[in-house]
Design a protein that fits this description.
The chain has no helices and eleven strands. It is an all-beta fold. It is globular, with a radius of gyration of 13 Å.
Length: 112
């Protein structure tokens, strides 16, 4: 079972961008679905985006058109490019492999 480590979070102004990375300790080639979830203050954890082994993507309606998920199997890394950030995007962002393994999360804070 791989371990996942997220990075790239931070404090950014509304309208700004960040690129989150999720580095796996082993190969992700055979992992069907890699995903990003987030949990904001007082909220439940929710799906942000996911990507299958063949590159099919799925996005939450609230982020579609602003966020982009990608995976580099050779580097065992999944990325989340987040653009046009809004204060409501403030949350801890978690990476998951098939919902079986989770990273520790990376904080994204968007100031207005």
């Amino acid at each position: 079972q791989v371990q996942l480590v997220e990075s790239g979070g931070g404090l950014v102004q509304a309208g700004g961008s960040l690129r989150l990375s999720c580095a796996a300790s082993g190969s992700i080639f055979s992992i069907n679905r890699m995903g990003w979830y987030r949990q904001g203050p007082g909220n439940q954890r929710e799906l942000v985006a996911s990507i299958t082994a063949v590159g099919s993507t799925n996005y939450a309606p609230s982020v579609k058109g602003r966020f982009a998920i990608s995976r580099n199997n050779a580097k065992s890394t999944v990325y989340l490019q987040i653009n046009s950030l809004k204060p409501e995007d403030t949350a801890v962002y978690y990476c998951t492999a098939d919902l079986a393994t989770w990273g520790q999360g990376t904080q994204v804070t968007v100031s207005s």
